[in-house]
Amino acid sequence: LRLSNALQQALKNEELALHFQPQVSLNGHGVTGVEALLRWQPPGQPPIPPGHFIPVAEETSLICDIGNWVLARACERLQHWHRHGSGPERLSVNISARHFHSPDFTTRLETLLLQFPACRHRLTLEVTESVILENLTESRTRMARLKELGLGLSIDDFGTGYSSFAYLKELPVDELKLDRAFIRHVDTAPRDRAIIACILALARELNMTVVAEGVETEAQRDQLQRLGCPAFQGFLMARPMPEQALLEWLSGTR
Ligand code: G
Ligand code: G
Ligand code: MN
Ligand code: NA
Prior knowledge:
Number of strands: 8
Distance between the termini: 46 Å
Strand content: 15-25%
Number of helices: 11
Mean pLDDT: 95
Largest sheet: 8 strands, mixed, barrel
Radius of gyration: 18 Å
Number of domains: 1
Bound molecules: guanosine-5'-monophosphate, manganese (II) ion, sodium ion
Organism: Oceanimonas pelagia
CATH architecture: Alpha-Beta Barrel
Shape: globular
Helix content: 40-55%
Order of helices and strands: HEEHHEHHEHHEEHHEHEH
Protein name: EAL domain-containing protein
Low-confidence stretches: none
């Protein structure tokens, strides 16, 4: 409860910030997108990672306030980068279940896209499969509407839930993010490789792109390249970083 109050205060006092982690393509040069990752920076204290406060926020509607802040901030930055010809072409944001299923989620996004039109076709929403399966009927309607708005849809932590693949055929998903758990042993474990190869083949057939998460070593990246994985995200390529560092990192790759 104390953490939750402090977090509410932090939101008001603008102690939240977005950091950014690049995603790169096969040749290791092309930047395919960037994921926005939330940070809490209390003044005079070390930053608090999202793993510590997102679960607390998710217990109440505070996650909707935080999520709306994240969306507004992401759109504002995308619009700014577009106007200045800087920054990445695409930005992904993480969306929690309660926020995704909140009644005004799509109308808020419609409003944001009117205010920041450059975000159409540049913003991707990352949801986990458990978010979708919590209410498949509603998710289907909602995702169709989000596609109409020009947003990208990505399944985060793909392959770790208890679900079947069946839901994929009826949802307008653009991207699968291969969970770190499969990547960790990709260079040493044939079974993990088999699963990844299978997901890559599935994604190709369904016209979805794939991003491998948590790529930390060259051996992992090389193995993923051999398997035909189109995009990579992880400490090997770049850590999550503040905006200024991102812009410098991007200018180094151009
Ligand atoms: O950076 P770190 O590994 O601590 O992130 C932990 C978790 O927090 C990840 O699962 C990530 O998806 C989640 N997360 C990061 N930023 C956001 C955000 O803006 N909104 C939500 N809902 N989750 C986020
Ligand atoms: O659940 P989600 O995929 O949104 O979580 C993203 C989290 O993974 C971020 O908090 C980010 O800091 C973390 N992350 C990104 N790259 C790596 C990596 O190479 N190794 C590890 N261990 N974590 C990573
Ligand atoms: Mn994510
Ligand atoms: Na993930």
